[in-house]
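Hey, quick one: can you model this chain's 3D structure?
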Amino acid sequence: MTDAKAAPMNMTIRKEALRDQRAKMLAAAPDWRASDARVNPRVAIGSILAMWFLYFLITTGLGILAGAEQWEYAGRRALVVVAGILCTFVLYQLIQRVQPRGFGARLAVALGAAVPLVAVYATINLLVFFYWFPGPDAEKIIAEVQSKFPVSWETVLILDSSIRWYFFFAVWAALYVAFGYANEMRAVERRANHFRIEAQAAQLRALHYQVNPHFLFNTLNSLSTLVLKGSKSEAETMIMNLSSFLRSSLAVDPEQLVSLDEEIALQRLYLDIEQVRFPDRLHVEVTMPNELENACVPVLILQPIIENAIKYGVAPSKGTIAIRLTASSEYGLLVMRIENDIDPKAPIPAPGTGLGLGNVRERLLTRYGPSAGCEWGRSDTGGFFVSLWLPLARERC
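Sure thing. Here's the predicted structure for all 397 residues.
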């Protein structure tokens, strides 16, 4: 597979993966939005009980401080508090069942649903204090209302109580909607992180599997050439090496981290294949301190770089070409440099698309972010180099 053909395929895989994830998220949106916006029933019911219990204590306490006889009103007030709890619970059930998408719409529904329930509560309050258990001041209050308003005193008292108590109900409703919206935002953030991780994993897999077909087709072409030339032993050796390489490389998870020592061992399997093609032209040098052997790197991160070194350095040359791999530690980073000679007498190969090296850079950025990177260019000795760096870690690989 050529670089030019692999590029659009890779982009298509990534776009399809991201599109599928987005479609799943949007398809499930109506259900999870309503579910996420609901407050835990224990919290909701607990807040209702706490609000009305606090009202009972404050009202009774203020009456006692004012010098009024409050104990005879305590029973009546307790009945009213029970009615308030029931009305607020009904409001909670209505809000829970109606969950528009927008915060403003939810708040409007909550405030609107509070209106008839406040009227019910005000009516019960009137019945308790003026009909069922009238207090000593009931007749005086009724007379004052009748002298000031031309309508029935019941209507005036219910309307007055509804206006005053509406804000009490509205505050609770607004807090419930706010808590629900906060829950939804936290759930959306968790879900977005989940889909982002899945999309990132899909991208890493696409970048990883782009390597194997590209290498495989090149190797098969080489095998075809050996067969046509009648080089049976070389072809058999290449097949065995190819089998070992594919068994080792395809057995690992594309998102897996391996030790630098294991990564170099994988590359030696690949180089054994290329050594059959270029027995007299390929020379490999590896310089790696012992303390970096267990440093963690993405699996097969070096393979496209070494493949390019052979394609553009060894293949067109007539003499021996050295490929040098060095690893070092600098400022908490693992730095790897791959350098190859270039035969000045060899014909200059056609420039590539940069897909292989771009693949390496994108894999590093996808996994590590801006703390990793890759650069390449002409070396001081006239050859070509690729340098990559990533955070130095020796665990979880």
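One thing worth noting: The beta strands are 257-259, 282-287, 296-298, 321-330, 333-340, 373-378, 384-391.
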